[in-house]
């Protein structure tokens, strides 16, 4: 799946593939997602995917949907669980991640609607904790995640697991839950919401513990704005202040695909 001119690194025990640009990241990521689907189907007749949102996954989903429309890839036996959702928000709000997924993937492939799981931004707050716990139970009942797709925030978040001062051991066990968004995350969401005042300040997110339970994890990063977070996650210590660094605890199951600008602060970058 990797081209001869791609650069391969091993950092903190994790495989890192550095490619020229964002388009190559998305192409290679789509290849990995397709391979994960085919591998899981061959092994047990179904595939359970954890999915992310954002600009980079959008292009990955476009490639996967194109392959489906060309008759080369089916989602008939796939089940999906999305990382996160703003809270509160209606699923039909165009800024919701449910809407995002429908636009970019769910509405373009043969994935059964009852197998496309996104955290519910309309659940009453008094039931949010139980809804989050139920989400984790659904994943377990489906046999766990075969594959988890991730991005990384400028502050090092994965999903909406934001930087904290929690002990690492505690962060590694975090379940799906309702969280407050970090100021950097809210600032980056202005492009979706139009102004900082309009950004919804809370979200439901799959927890670090749930993410790390996946049998295979693919993390993507593109652009120079992600370089600092990527370097901290790949070359720094495991710390709750950089949630993506916690992927080091599952190093043998983690692959990073990043472009040259995002790799700018790595050794040899």
If you had to describe this structure to a student in words, what would you say it looks like?
The protein has helices at 22-44, 55-69, 97-104, 128-141, 168-171, 183-188, 190-193, 208-212, 227-235, and strands at residues 7-11, 14-19, 47-51, 78-82, 84-87, 116-117, 147-150, 177-180, 202-205, 217-221, 254-259. With 269 residues, the protein is an alpha/beta fold. It has one domain (10-187, 221-228, 235-259): Rossmann fold (3-Layer(aba) Sandwich). The strands form two sheets. The protein has an eight-stranded mixed beta sheet with strand order 1-2-11-10-7-3-4-6, sandwiched between helices. A three-stranded antiparallel beta sheet has the order 5-9-8. The longest helix is centred in the N-terminal third of the chain and has 23 residues, at 22-44. The model has no long low-confidence stretch (mean pLDDT 97).
Structure summary, number of beta strands:
11
Given this structure, which CATH class is correct? Alpha Beta
Output the structural class.
alpha/beta
- Determine Rg (CA atoms, Å): 17 Å
Mean pLDDT: 97
Described by the principal axes of the CA atoms, the overall outline is: globular
CATH topology: Rossmann fold
Under the CATH scheme, the architecture is 3-Layer(aba) Sandwich
Oligomer state equals single chain
Biggest sheet layout: 8 strands, mixed
Strand order of the largest sheet: 1-2-11-10-7-3-4-6
- Helix fraction bin: 25-40%
Total discrete domains: 1
> Count of DSSP helices?
9
Q: Element order, helices and strands?
A: EEHEHEEHEHEHEHHEHEHE
User: For the terminal residues, how far apart are their CA atoms?
Assistant: 22 Å
The fraction of residues assigned to DSSP E strands is 15-25%
Poorly predicted regions are: none
């Amino acid at each position: 799946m990797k081209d001869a001119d791609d650069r391969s690194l091993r950092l903190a025990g994790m495989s890192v593939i550095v490619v020229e640009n964002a388009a190559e990241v998305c192409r290679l990521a789509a290849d990995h997602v397709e391979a994960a689907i085919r591998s899981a189907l061959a092994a047990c007749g179904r595939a359970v995917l954890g999915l992310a949102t954002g600009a980079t996954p959008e292009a990955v989903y476009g490639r996967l949907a194109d392959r489906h429309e060309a008759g080369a890839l089916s989602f008939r036996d796939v089940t999906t669980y999305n990382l996160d959702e703003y809270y509160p928000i209606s699923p039909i709000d165009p800024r919701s991640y449910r809407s995002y997924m429908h636009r970019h993937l769910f509405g373009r492939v043969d994935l059964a609607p009852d197998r496309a799981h996104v955290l519910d931004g309309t659940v009453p707050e008094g039931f949010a904790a139980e809804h989050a716990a139920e989400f984790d139970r659904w994943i377990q009942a489906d046999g766990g995640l075969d594959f988890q797709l991730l991005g990384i925030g400028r502050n090092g978040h994965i999903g909406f697991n934001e930087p904290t001062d929690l002990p690492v051991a505690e962060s590694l066990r975090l379940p799906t839950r309702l969280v407050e968004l970090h100021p950097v995350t809210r600032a980056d969401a202005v492009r979706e919401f139009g102004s900082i005042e309009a950004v919804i300040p809370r979200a439901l997110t799959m927890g670090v513990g749930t993410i790390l339970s996946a049998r295979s994890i693919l993390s993507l990063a593109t652009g120079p704005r992600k370089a600092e977070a990527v370097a901290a996650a790949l070359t720094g210590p495991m710390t709750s202040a950089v949630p993506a660094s916690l992927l080091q605890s599952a190093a043998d199951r983690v692959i990073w695909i990043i472009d040259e600008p995002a790799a700018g602060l790595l050794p040899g970058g």
